[in-house]
């Protein structure tokens, strides 16, 4: 059976019937359970107040079953299956927001770069209270996603609870077609360093990243930015690590039975660079991002910088109900384990160097000492700040701008720290 594995937010809930001192007859027990289900469906079909068709009853039963397993297992009807296929190809409609369930609340994992949610100021770990006028209490993930998606240029309002804010925030935006450039690169001005940004792990991430690395042979070090990357395909996370690591386990997954463990190992043939590497993460880095950063950390291949990650460490498989894959179930089948044996589920990856987001803190007398050539424009920039409101901080995402300047570095404390540490690594490796 062909399976599409996703690195997705899940909490594995396993219910086991323990029969002490009883002889269990599995086939009889299965028959009785299935008979009970059939009787309930038949009773609903016959006596329910509204005229409801059998197919609709079965669909509702399937949705309820998957919802009771955990917050992220779900039944995907034809429409939902089509949306899933479109999303993993890197283009879909909506807000550009990835959500998950955290402590029972509908929570933003991260907004995707340059999407309506990103531009409107939605942030990782925001809790969504309402979608338009509909409360999200007891709402499933699938229901929330359905409400947030819609025709391009239609209005939508999210009511959010954000840490540090005294009252809920109402953020208005317009839906749009989400076209993701998952991988792009920039050079860091006059430093001979390459900045690599992965916004999500779709089907072409490893291929695109390999092309960029191969085309930039003269750089001395790499910065891999996985901030606010909600994850994606497991195969792509493995492929990205393999570009930097030439041997050993990248990640393993263990299911309910010990014999189900599956290990994914690096190959020297796929390794493309051994240049010094730092990886940027934050609380919006999840799933595949945590596999990449955690694996590189365990292999001591990179220095991880930023904030503790989200903590999505379990495996989902999309399993077809029909041969044509028109209907599927999305089911938790295992948990991820990093090379050291640790899990990221609910714990996340703790960076080697903790650095808070924000602007670079500088002494008044040193605030312009980046480059002599940039002194004039920095002076102008500082003067322009007087009387202006503070702009929303964000990960660098202007894909048309190919060079990161001193001004960009000043606006991003985590990136500034990464450059300093990467320079140190380059000196140590000489």
TrEMBL record:
A biological-process GO annotation: proteolysis
Keyword Membrane (UniProt): no
Family annotation (CDD domains): cpPDZ_CPP-like, Peptidase_S41_CPP
Gene3D superfamilies given in the database record: 2-enoyl-CoA Hydratase, Chain A, domain 1 (3.90.226.10), 2.30.42.10, 3.30.750.44
EC number in record: 3.4.21.102
Transcription as UniProt keyword: no
Residues making up the signal peptide according to the UniProt record: 1-20
One Gene Ontology MF term: serine-type endopeptidase activity
InterPro entries: ClpP/crotonase-like_dom_sf (IPR029045), PDZ (IPR001478), PDZ_sf (IPR036034), Peptidase_S41A (IPR004447), Tail-specific_protease (IPR005151)
GO annotations of cellular component type: outer membrane-bounded periplasmic space
Domain PDZ: 83-149
Keywords tagged on the record: Hydrolase, Protease, Serine protease, Signal
Entry similarity comment: Belongs to the peptidase S41A family.
NCBIfam families: prc
PANTHER family tied to this protein: CARBOXY-TERMINAL PROCESSING PROTEASE CTPA, TAIL-SPECIFIC PROTEASE
Name of the protein in its database record: Carboxyl-terminal protease family protein
Organism of this sequence: Arcobacter suis CECT 7833
Taxonomy of the source species: Bacteria, Pseudomonadati, Campylobacterota, Epsilonproteobacteria, Campylobacterales
């Amino acid at each position: 059976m062909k399976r599409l594995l996703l690195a997705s937010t899940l909490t594995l809930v396993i219910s086991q019937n323990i029969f002490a001192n009883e002889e269990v007859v599995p086939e009889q027990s299965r028959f009785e359970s299935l008979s009970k289900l059939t009787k309930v469906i038949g009773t609903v079909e016959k006596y329910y107040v509204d005229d409801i068709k059998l197919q609709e009853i079965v669909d509702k039963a399937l949705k309820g079953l998957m919802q009771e397993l955990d917050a992220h297992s779900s039944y995907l009807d034809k429409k939902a299956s089509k949306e899933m296929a479109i999303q993993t190809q890197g283009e879909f409609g909506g807000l550009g927001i990835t959500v998950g369930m955290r402590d029972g609340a509908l929570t933003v994992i991260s907004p995707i770069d340059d999407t309506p949610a990103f531009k409107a100021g939605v942030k990782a770990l925001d809790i969504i209270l309402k979608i338009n006028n509909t409360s999200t209490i007891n709402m499933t993930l699938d229901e929330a996603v359905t409400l947030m998606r819609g025709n391009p240029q239609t209005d939508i309002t999210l009511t959010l609870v954000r840490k540090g804010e005294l009252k809920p925030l109402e953020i208005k935006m317009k839906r749009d077609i989400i076209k993701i450039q998952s991988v792009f690169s920039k050079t860091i001005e006059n430093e001979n360093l390459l900045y690599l940004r992965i916004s999500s792990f779709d089907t072409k991430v490893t291929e695109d990243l390999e092309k960029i690395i191969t085309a930039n042979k003269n750089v001395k070090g790499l910065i891999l930015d996985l901030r606010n990357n909600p994850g994606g395909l497991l195969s792509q996370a493995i492929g990205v690590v393999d570009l930097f690591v030439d041997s050993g386990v990248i990640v393993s997954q263990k299911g309910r039975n010990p014999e189900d463990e599956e290990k994914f190992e690096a190959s020297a043939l796929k390794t493309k660079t051994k240049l010094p590497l730092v990886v940027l993460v934050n609380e919006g880095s999840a799933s595949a991002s945590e596999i990449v950063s955690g694996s590189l950390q365990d292999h001591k291949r990179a220095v991880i910088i930023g904030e503790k990650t989200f903590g999505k460490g379990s495996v989902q498989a999309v399993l077809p109900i029909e041969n044509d894959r028109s209907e599927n179930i999305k089911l938790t089948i295992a948990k991820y384990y990093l090379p050291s044996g640790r899990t990221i589920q609910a714990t996340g990856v703790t960076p080697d160097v903790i650095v808070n987001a924000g602007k670079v803190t500088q002494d008044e007398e040193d605030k312009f000492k980046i480059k002599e050539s940039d002194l004039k424009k920095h002076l102008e920039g500082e003067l322009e700040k007087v009387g202006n409101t503070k702009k929303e901080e964000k990960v660098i995402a202007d894909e048309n701008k190919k060079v990161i300047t001193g001004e960009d570095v000043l606006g991003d404390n985590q990136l500034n720290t990464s450059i300093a540490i990467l320079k140190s690594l380059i000196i140590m490796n000489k």
